[in-house]
Amino acid sequence: MARMDTTRYRLDGHDVLAHRLTVPLDHAAPGGETIEIFAREIVRDGGAEKPHLVWFQGGPGGRGDRPARISGWIDRALRDYRVVLLDQRGTGLSTPADALTITARGDAAAQAAYLSHFRADAIVADAEALRRHLTGDRPWSALGQSYGGFVITTYLSTAPDGLREAFITGGLPGLTTPAEQVYRLTYAKTARRNAQYFARYPDDQATLREVTRHLGDTEELLPTGERLSARRLRQVGTRLGAGLGFDALHYLFEDPFVTVAGARRLSRGFLADACALLSYAGRELYAVLHETIYAQGAATHWAAHRVRGEFSTMAEDADPAWHATPYHLTGEHIYPWQLREDPALAPLAAAADLLATKEDFPALYDPRVLAENTVPVAAAVYTDDMFVPVELSQETARAVQNLRPWITNEYHHDGIRVDGEHILDRLITLARS
């Protein structure tokens, strides 16, 4: 059995147990290379006998929550559970997988081979190893947001005996949907959110066009040192998927220019704010692995890049001066050129290209097993979700036995961050009713 070390400290009236567990890099080859997994377990005073709930955060490539105080969904969860915040492999205090550590493994082929072990199936195997240590092999509960819901769907497919119950927010994936179809749906929803945004802030459409034209004529450098391209600027549209994203983008575009020695330039403040939205420094895994989460027995071949041209308002070659067509921001889409323009991603660009052409990624979901599922599941499905299309979520909800969906337009994709206590409470009630 894998070795686990634990230390503890106190946080806001709670015991916190910091667990470090050694697991195989490839669970199919347990005698080979190992990595370390970190998890932070929070136990409310008097709650030592409560069952465990493991949290799978969004991503891919996102680390577990770092609460400074106990509030939101964690506060609600601690009424019923000991909460386990897992740093998914490669993130946080788990063995890091970033541009520095991955490139040290050798050429692009070696890097891609290593990264192929960082998908949901491996995360579930890690969680199972951790569960056996923490619970004495009793099943535990799971909560997943966004990509975390994808992980739970894999969990239900491959290791359902490890789950007592499951809660999913904004993260019911299509079970067999090709990447191209996923992106057709997300582009359409991104266009709709653009239309809503520019209806609320109509002057921002003119500002976006003006800034885009300026970037075509003038070299403007981000604080990370590279030139800001017009196509990369449009990626700030990922904020459109958040409940408060409209206002955040409006503040970005409300005053982008300054005059310097008679010349119009983008302000340092605008460039810094744009860089905070655009740079993947410290989030390399997200960009490199993003399309692999849709790869099941077929290569993606940079599906988001190929499908983009089907949407004229977001086409890469759309002319900002052509006012007959709306000029839109893009959303949660990763492009091959992006990995070369972002200095944080450039060292991994060749490996990402290899992952995009990998034909033999195994299936992550088993429709047959899910059709006979006995684990109680409750899922919040957001009708206006820009990142996880409601059409696919509803289809999956019908396909998974014993799953009860809560379909609502009260929240956007980040609902768990906005009103987590209420959302989790409702899901717990739904699963147990």
Automatic annotation (TrEMBL):
Gene3D superfamilies: alpha/beta hydrolase. It comes from the Bacteria. Residues 51-238 form the AB hydrolase-1 domain. GO terms for molecular function: aminopeptidase activity. One of its GO terms (biological process) is proteolysis. Keywords: Hydrolase. The keyword Ribonucleoprotein does not apply. Transmembrane segments: none annotated. Coiled coil: none annotated. It holds the Pfam family Abhydrolase_1. This is Alpha/beta hydrolase. It comes from Georgenia yuyongxinii. The lineage of its organism: Bacteria, Bacillati, Actinomycetota, Actinomycetes, Micrococcales.
